[in-house]
Design brief:
318 residues; alpha/beta; Rossmann fold; 7-stranded parallel sheet; 5-stranded parallel sheet; 31% helix
Length: 318
């Protein structure tokens, strides 16, 4: 096989390059950024980028491109008419996010259950005042979308003695889930009505956009908390604000939003029962090490003609 030009739109340490060359020492690794990537596209065979990066212009300028790999799990900006009509392989980094994201969810859940969201505000005001506290033990968590991240959340929740519910398109055997629901709306509403903590863990597709609306918040317990670590557009944000204002739910932990950065005008900023983080749930010092290890494994499979992992169904978007 001729030398493969692998264009990577992210800075790499030497250890990352070494991991890639374990697949084939003759691979030509070109490290660049979005601004300067175009000059490398005519000779590019494999593009490594992010699912939120504007990739269509690069794709159209790369006549030899055979494969695009997303360092992220989401691939929303990597699916466009030209790639859908072509044989170009599209893969993602699904499977590497479970540890940091599940820890992020637990941090938010524990913050609410122990009243830390209130304590932190009181600390700034030098106010010594006790607040109600609770436990996660024997409470119910509902995970909407049981993929790799959802499974890791289920595992950690079960280790804390929680009752774990989850929804998924296909019925599977899940050792950390007490009850698995199908993905239809009636089943979703039933599951949501039972939960103390609801975690959104779905991929963003045309089908899942605005999947969680006011009717779903209305189905929840008024003491329930909602968490979104997936994509902002999966929850109708205006409906979420309405649900919080109407006290249909008790609070929300949000890492993703319809518009990012979250506009200063958003009422979510001022709500004491909302925890906001700036899309950092998946971040970890180990992120690129895990992502490049996965890519290198797939690169070896690609070169050797073996079945690749994490291939995206471009018609479905995941």
């Amino acid at each position: 096989m001729a030398v493969l030009n692998v264009v990577v739109l992210n800075q790499l340490a030497d250890r990352h390059k070494e991991v890639i060359t374990t697949a084939d020492p003759n691979v030509n690794i070109i490290v660049t950024d979005q601004k300067n990537a175009m000059e490398h596209m005519p000779g590019c065979h494999i593009l490594v980028t992010w699912g939120w990066a504007e990739t269509q212009p690069l794709y159209l300028a790369a006549p030899h491109l055979e494969w695009i790999h997303a360092l992220s799990a989401g691939v929303e900006k990597l699916i466009f008419p030209e790639i859908q009509a072509a044989d170009t392989i599209l893969t993602n980094s699904k499977g590497i996010h479970g540890i940091p994201v599940s820890e992020h969810i637990l941090a938010m859940m524990l913050a609410f259950s122990r009243g830390l969201n209130i304590s932190i505000r009181q600390q700034g005001a030098k106010l010594w005042k006790r607040m109600p506290t609770d436990e996660l033990h024997e409470h119910t968590i509902a995970i909407v979308g049981l993929g790799a991240i959802g499974r890791e959340i289920a595992k950690k929740a079960k280790s804390l003695g929680m009752n774990v519910l989850a929804s998924k398109r296909e019925a599977t055997t899940e050792i950390f889930v007490d009850k698995l629901y199908p993905a239809d709306d009636d089943s979703l509403l039933e599951m949501l009505s039972l939960a103390d903590y609801v975690v959104i863990s779905l991929p963003l597709t045309e089908e899942t956009k605005n999947r969680i609306r006011l009717e779903h918040f209305a189905a929840m317990k008024r003491t329930a908390y909602v968490f979104n670590i997936a994509r902002g557009n999966i929850i109708n944000e205006a409906d979420l604000v309405a649900a919080l204002n109407q006290e249909l739910i008790q609070g929300a932990g949000l890492d993703v939003f319809e518009q990012e950065p979250l506009p200063e005008t958003s009422p979510l900023w001022e709500m004491p029962n909302v925890i906001i983080t700036p899309h950092i749930a998946a971040l970890s010092p180990a992120y690129l090490d895990r992502a490049l290890k996965l890519f290198a494994d797939n690169l070896a499979r690609f070169i050797q003609g073996r079945d690749m992992i994490n291939i995206i169904d471009k018609s479905k978007g995941y």
